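Entry 14. Ran structure prediction on the chain below.
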Amino acid sequence: GTYIFSIRLFFAPQDFDFFRQINNRPHFTIKDWLSTLHSNHIKEEGIESNTFLLSLICPLSLKKLSKPVRGISCKHLLCFDLIFFLRYIRECGKWKCPVCDNDCPYEALRIDQFVSDILKTVPTNCESVLIDKKGNVTPAHFAPDSDDDDKEDDY
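Output, C-alpha cells:
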C-alpha cells in the first residue's frame, strides 16, 4: 500500500495576545449591525418581519456568549464566543466560521460591540432577544431558573 504523511501547521496565538489584538481592532457597532439586518431582510424572499430573533447562545459551546465575535466577511448576525472559537481552532486547525462555514481567519475576527452591550443589559438567564429595525432590544427567551426547580422539590 501507499502511505501519505502530512504535517499541518496553523497559527494559534496565546490567549492574552489573541484577546488583546482582537479587542484593539474596530468592533462591529449598532450601525454595522442594522445595516446587515436591513440587507438580510431585503434578501429574504417574501418574508416581512419587524423584528429579528437573536440567540445569545454560542453555537460551539452551547453556553451564553461572553465575548461575541463574527468574521468581517460573514453575512449573518449570529455571533460565536471568542474563547470557545479559540479552543475550536486549536482542536481542528480550521479558521472557519462555525455559523456559515466561510473562511474566518484570525485577521478577520471582530468583536460585536452591539451584542456585547446587549449581554450587559439583559438578565443573566436571557438566552435570546428580539431586535427591531431601529435596534431596540427586548428579552425574548429565558433559561429555566435552577433555583425555582429546587424550590418545587421542597414542597
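Residues 30-43 form the longest helix (14 residues). Will compare against last week's run tomorrow.
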